[in-house]
Amino acid sequence: MDRPRYNTVVRRCALDRDFTLLPHGDKTVVGERGVSLSGGQRARISLARAVYKRADIYLLDDPLSAVDAHVGRHLFESCVVGYLRNTTRVLVTHQLQFLRDVEQIIILKNGAIAAAG
Length: 117
Prior knowledge:
Layout: H1 3-12, H2 16-21, H3 39-52, E1 57-61, H4 69-83, E2 88-92, E3 106-109, E4 112-116
């Protein structure tokens, strides 16, 4: 494991506090046989898992939908715009507040491109 990268991703995905609250930190068993996680925690862990894996292209399917506005802004700025800045990112979202910070917007309607710019 790349510990410095891991620590950076944990911080960028706002998981540090969660790990301090879990009984065994990031080694805690979660799910059916372990600790239950909130929707926001599950979303941030999913984002962290995707971001930790080195890739040229990241497909992010509404990763901010299960978190509150403050955490969503942090994840968008720190992780999507900041940490992944030198990669291609395709972000699917219904949250219009993030659109002003993206390079290109594509609007889909009935599975087809309705507008792009």
